[in-house]
Amino acid sequence: MSTPAITRNPFSWFLLLGLLVSGFLIWLIYYKPAATTEGEWVTYLPAANACFNALCACCLIGGFVNIKRGNRDRHIRCMLAALVFSVLFLVSYIVYHHFHGDTPFPGQGPIRLLYFFILISHIVLSIVALPLVFTTLYHAARKQFEAHKKIARYTFPIWLYVSVTGVLVFFFLRAYT
Fold it and tell me: How many angstroms separate the Cα of 150 from the Cα of each of 25, 66, 77, 131, 139?
């Protein structure tokens, strides 16, 4: 019996999914006109997004600490919570940008360069993180712990960086808009 393509090479499928999600987000933010109506509740979504990112980062650190201590059950709970917070972030982010569109950064001088360095690295690494997270989760779910551990070495710092810089982007925009 042949092995299904997704089982043989799941990363390729997860990479394709990541590229599709990234393409959708680029269209949503830069090409789709903002919705014509917007409730006041939409203004709270950036803060909610920052909270989701911060909670994700805390869960990632908790998962890392727990696996280093040999507590696999707590590691699993922390990592699944990190995944849930990331999904909540993505849903909230999509809703916000559906209604609001792009938020330009008005800061000038060196702070503008710093902001765009953080923003661009955040965006690029979030595109990289998505297939890595799915692949890492896939190997864990299939109890392929050696493969899981090997890819998690890359997934963890990238996912953590994306979560932390997401919070930083929020604070930059809050301070300058």
Answer: 29, 17, 20, 15, 10
Whether the CB-CB separation of 54 and 167 falls below 8 Å is answered with yes
Q: What is the mean pLDDT of residues 152-177?
A: 96
Identify the CA nearest to 60 among candidates 50, 72, 49, 75.
75
Helix 10-26 crosses helix 72-100 at what angle (to 10 degrees)? 30
Provide DSSP, 66-111.
HHHTT-HHHHHHHHHHHHHHHHHHHHHHHHHHHHH--------THH
Q: What pLDDT, in 10s, does the model give residues 106-164?
A: 999 999 999 999 999 999 999 999 999 999 999 999 999 999 999 999 999 999 999 99
Q: What is the DSSP letter of 54?
A: H
Q: Which two tokens stand for residue 55?
A: 């909670």
The pair of structure tokens assigned to 25 is 């987000």
Supply angle C-alpha 115, 133, 69, rounded to 5: 100
